[in-house]
Amino acid sequence: MMKRLTERLTIRELCETDYPEFERTLNDVQRSVFGNGKGFLNWIISQYPAMDITHGLLSYGIFERATERLVGTVGVGDHDDLHEPEIFYRLLPEYRGRGYASEAVKEITDWALAHLPISHLIGTAGVENVKSQHVLERCGYRFVEIRSLLVHVTNTRHDFKVYRYDKPTERFSCKIASVEEMNVKWAYEIAHSGKDRENWLVWREQHLENYRRGYLLPYYGILDGTIICEATAVLRPEIVQNSDGLVDEHTVYLSAFRTVEQFQGKGYFSKLFRFMLDDLRRKGYTKATLGVEPDEKRNKEIYAHYGFTEFLKSGRERYPDGTEIEVEYYGKTLE
Q1: Sequence-ordered strand ranges (E) for 167-309
Q2: Is there a shared CATH topology between the 3-166 domain and the 172-333 domain?
Q3: What are the tens digits of pLDDT across the range 247-270?
């Protein structure tokens, strides 16, 4: 099941229980195509398995995370007139003007280009629809031209601004690290460790030994041949402090989240994190856990954004030099 989380929104496949709220997002033509709104919803649901936007479309519900209310729809399909893959969205009137459209369009643009066999997306907005133009521009779509396009549902022509978003050339890759790559990354961390150098030296030896024993998986994000971010999945309870409920046969403990400072806030770690979770799902894990210090409010917000909202417990952890820290542990089901 397709499901994406943004800062304020959940974007997911629609289901029958989303009716009758879904009906409010439709125009009169959409309601009439299949006899009623329920028929249109059932048709949308039937499109999900094929993931085919050439002969159909993919439309997803936009839900407010705070209230779980349906606020609109967003998706991709084949443009009736231009026959190119197109982004589309519709918000209920009471939820407009909050930035939800930009948040949803950006997320689905990234998802579609990563998961569908397409090289670009277009977006269209009426020449007088300045707000929709701004949504596309904020999401990185570039203006191409003004075209007179046929609106098939009304059989009339109107002038539209056409925008395009090209799939970026991929210079960034994610992988499970080799021993050679780990040695390079640990040398970098130790060189920048300052007063904690002795702790880092111990952690390096422990990490490499646990890797050799098959107790952990190191995931690296590499840009133009340089390691810029990392995360570690710990698979065995004997190397996790306070491990009860944090790691077992089906539960993996995540740690060592690090991004080189100049590459922070650019989305690289998010790509690595999703790569790691997808890989762990394929390996059969059904839950992931992690720990965070109570006063690390920004990190807690980030982890909540990733879906780690189930509070598990608190505990204390000890560094090699004897320093103790308070840690809160959170979990997430790997859907």
Answers
A1: 172-176, 216-223, 226-234, 251-259, 287-292
A2: yes
A3: 999 999 999 999 999 998 888 999
Residue spans of alpha helices (H) in 10-99: 28-33, 37-47
Find all residues with CB under 8 Å of 48, minimum gap 6, and list them: 2, 13, 58
CB environment 272-290: b (16+ within 10 A), e (fewer): bbebbbebbeeeebebbbb
Whose structure tokens read 């993931």?
Answer: 51
pLDDT digits (tens, 9 = 90+) for 177-189: 999 999 999 999 9
Q: Which fold has domain 172-333?
A: Aminopeptidase (3.40.630)
Half-sphere exposure at residue 255, Cβ-oriented, CA atoms within 13 angstroms: 20
CA distance 274 to 305: 12
Say if residue 20 is preceded by a cis peptide, omega within 30 of 0.
yes
Cα separation, 285 vs 54, in Å, equals: 34
DSSP helix/strand/coil, 79: coil
Mean pLDDT rounded to a whole number for the chain: 93
Nearest CA-CA partner of 231 in 184, 182, 294: 182
CATH of domain 3-166: 3.40.630.30
Sorted by sequence, the CB contacts under 8 Å of residue 2 that are 6+ apart come out as 12, 13, 48, 60, 111
For the record, the structure tokens of 7 come out as: 């800062």
Token look-up 């936009």 returns: 62
- d(CA 30, CA 49) in angstroms, rounded, equals 21
Distance CA 323, CA 195 (A): 13
